[in-house]
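Thread title: Can someone regenerate the structure for this chain?

I was given the following input by a collaborator and told the matching structure tokens would be attached. They weren't. Posting the sequence so someone can regenerate them.
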Amino acid sequence: MKTTAKFLKLLAVLCILFNTMTAQPPKADKDAWMEITGRIKHLKDLNGKTYKVELILNDLVIDSAIVQNNKKFKFFPPKDSYYAIRITKKGYVTRLISVYTQLPDANNKYFRLVFTTNLIEEARAKSLDKEALDFPIAIISYNKRRKHFNYNEKYTTNIKRSLVNSNKVTKVVVATFSDICPN
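Best answer:
Regenerated them for you:
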């Protein structure tokens, strides 16, 4: 009898452990209309094997993730607001991406925003324009003509140009965005 009780307890613990180990990340709720997926490339493990990503609305973090280096993160932001995605990792400059989620009234499509970017090591940032580092690396909004979300290419080009001090740095990769089209 005692053996059966011990066996059942062990079985219950193993089931709980198995469910915890195989749990899937949270999915978007039924009202989700947009999925933002990003990945930070070429991170060194100098200060840990993770980085932090936060979705910010009005100076309030509404979602966040601790992500393994070179792995993806995902957010499902509400409509009609200005957001910032803040990316931090010790030893690197904190970066922002600005996202404006307003859509035309008659929209019922599901959108996916997919991007990759690099962070700039603090040691390397010493040769870059400090003021330009404080600005978002990209501004993303709905493009009515293209009918999907897109980043402002002129803005990103200007930020890249502003970052580089031509005497010390030859190239800085700031962001690469895929086409951001609805499904």
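The longest strand covers residues 60-68.
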